[in-house]
Every structure is written in structure tokens, then in C-alpha cells.
């Protein structure tokens, strides 16, 4: 994405936008800008004259952080006006949502069922697991614990070397604060003798497939037909996920959204792109970095459907 080369001596904004119609700018990009600060400054100036700027990142080379700086800030209709798709054809999947976000004649009727899937294998270091917990806490407290016209139900599942554990079902009614406190108390059980402070052992990574199947057959069996179902995996990615093709095919055919949040310095985005619904749905949360790149996740969870209030 080259810089948004908007200069007032070339574009007369007041004159260009002098009519009273609502004005929306859709920015589509498959990369990052050459001059990031110039891009952000131009977007700030443009926002003075338009109703909304919606930023759509296409592919795996986009900077979610930059798009958050360009797009209009979230409001009661959407937590963020940033969207991710893996190619231009996939834009059709967000058209309905974009129409809803720009529609004044809508009754909002949306629900989302979200399952957090936490990697607790003995091969994950204490530092990486702590980062995963912090990233999960951020998503819960800074994005999901907001007031939007969307019903969101949460479940929590973990997998270790040998088994899968359901910590919370969609029908549980405990508060977000209670869930956060519970997550903060979780610890990894080590299956070797190298000590609890480091990584150890070769884990049975097939438990990831078992966890996905349990979510499909158990957790999401409680979903209503209209609910959007989302799985968010938190892992340090020290293994290439072994998920049989039938499981991947079922997830894609069912329309369930799969996202991955990778933590730790060794996480490789490419290893998990085959698991997610969209290659752009692999997020990275490094130690010492801000978590606000995860804000894009909220846009996917707070998926808005719109029923017109009149009979067009």
C-alpha cells in the first residue's frame, strides 16, 4: 500500500464533499504503506470530511495495526472498521456486513458463539503460556466485554499432551470477570522432569484434532442455527498442527470461523495458515508488543446481520 497521497493543494476537501450525502471510503490494500506516518496523517485529515473509513486488508502481508490507525474508530455498530479477507473474491463474504454497517434502517439481530481453545501441552514454556493467557485476557476484557447489539456466548477448551478439557460451556452464565480470574489461575502440567520453568518433552499433538472435534460435536451442539460460530486458538506454534483433512473440510463447509493467535518468539505464521478459515486470520502477539492488533478479532466476532425496518 503506497501512502494515501492526499494533499490539500490538490484536493479541495470542503468543495469535494460539499453536498449533504453520507460519505464512505473503502480502503482495500494487500500490503503496507511506504511511509506509515504520512498515511496515518492523510487518513486523519480525510476522516474530517467523510462519514466512515472502512479498511479491508487482503492477504497475509497487511499490517492490522496500520489499518486500525487508518480506519474510523469503532462505535455502537462495530468495534472496529477493519476487515480481513484472503483474496479479492472473498470480498463477497463481507459485503452483507458492510451494507449493514452503513444502513440507517436496520434492526440488528445477531449472535455469536465463541470457543477459546488454549494450548496447554507440556512443550509450551511458562513464558509462552503466560503470553497466551495475557492475549486471551486482552481479547476478553478489551474487545468482547463491550456493549454492542450482538449476543456473544463464550466457551473455553484446552488441550494438553493426552487429553482435552472443557472448562466452560456456551450455556455457562458466569461473568467475564469470573472467567478472566479462572484463566489467570490455569497452569501447565509438565510430563517430564526438566522443571516447570522451561519447555520439555515431545507432546501428542494429535490432541489438537481431538479438541476441534469436541468443539464441533459438543460445544457447538448448543448453538442456535443463526449464531456465528468461531474458534480462536492460542498457541506458541512449536509444532506443525496435525489436523486430518476431513476435520478441516468439515470446518470450512460448516462456515465456522477459525482464527489463530500465535505467541512466543518462535511462532511461524505459515505453519498455521492451513488450519484457519482465511490466511489473514493468523495473528501474532510477541512479548513486549501492544495487543491492539488483536482488536481486528472483535470485528469478526461482532458480526452484524441487518433486517430492514421497511418493505423495500
Automatic annotation (TrEMBL):
Transmembrane regions listed in the UniProt entry: none
Stored PROSITE patterns: VWFA
UniProt cross-references to InterPro entries, sorted A to Z: ECM_Assembly_Org, VWF_A, vWFA_dom_sf
VWFA domain location: 1-98, 113-301
Top-rank lineage group of the source organism: Eukaryota
Pfam families: VWA
Protein name: CO6A6-like protein
Source organism: Mya arenaria (Soft-shell clam)
Amino acid at each position: 500500500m503506497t501512502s494515501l497521497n492526499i494533499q490539500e493543494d490538490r484536493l479541495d476537501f470542503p468543495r469535494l464533499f460539499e453536498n449533504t450525502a453520507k460519505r464512505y471510503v473503502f480502503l482495500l490494500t494487500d500490503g503496507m504503506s511506504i511511509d506509515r506516518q504520512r498515511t496515518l496523517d492523510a487518513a486523519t485529515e480525510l476522516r474530517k470530511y467523510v462519514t466512515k473509513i472502512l479498511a479491508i486488508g487482503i492477504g497475509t502481508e497487511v499490517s492490522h495495526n496500520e489499518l486500525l490507525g487508518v480506519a474510523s474508530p469503532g462505535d455502537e455498530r462495530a468495534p472496529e472498521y477493519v476487515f480481513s479477507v484472503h483474496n479479492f473474491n472473498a470480498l463477497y463474504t463481507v459485503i452483507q456486513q458492510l451494507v449493514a454497517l452503513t444502513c440507517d434502517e436496520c434492526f440488528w439481530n445477531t449472535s455469536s458463539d465463541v470457543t477459546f481453545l488454549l494450548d496447554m501441552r507440556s512443550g509450551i514454556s511458562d513464558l509462552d503460556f503466560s503470553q497466551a493467557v495475557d492475549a486471551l485476557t486482552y481479547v476478553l476484557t478489551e474487545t468482547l466485554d463491550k456493549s454492542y447489539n450482538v449476543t456473544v456466548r463464550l466457551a473455553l477448551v484446552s488441550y494438553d499432551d493426552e487429553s482435552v478439557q472443557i472448562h466452560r460451556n456456551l450455556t455457562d452464565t458466569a461473568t467475564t470477570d469470573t472467567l478472566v480470574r479462572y484463566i489467570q489461575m490455569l497452569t501447565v502440567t509438565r510430563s517430564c522432569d526438566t522443571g516447570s520453568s522451561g519447555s520439555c518433552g515431545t507432546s501428542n499433538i494429535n490432541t489438537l484434532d481431538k479438541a476441534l472435534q469436541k468443539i464441533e460435536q459438543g460445544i457447538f451442539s448448543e448453538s442456535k442455527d443463526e449464531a456465528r460460530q468461531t474458534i480462536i486458538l492460542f498457541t506458541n506454534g512449536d509444532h506443525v498442527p496435525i489436523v486430518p483433512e476431513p476435520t478441516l473440510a468439515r470446518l470450512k463447509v460448516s462456515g465456522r470461523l477459525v482464527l489463530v493467535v500465535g505467541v512466543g518468539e518462535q511462532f511461524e505464521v505459515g505453519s498455521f495458515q492451513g488450519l484457519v478459515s482465511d490466511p489473514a486470520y493468523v495473528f501474532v502477539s510477541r512479548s513486549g508488543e501492544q495487543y491492539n492488533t488483536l482488536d481486528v478479532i472483535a470485528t469478526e466476532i461482532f458480526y452484524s446481520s441487518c433486517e430492514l425496518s421497511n418493505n423495500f
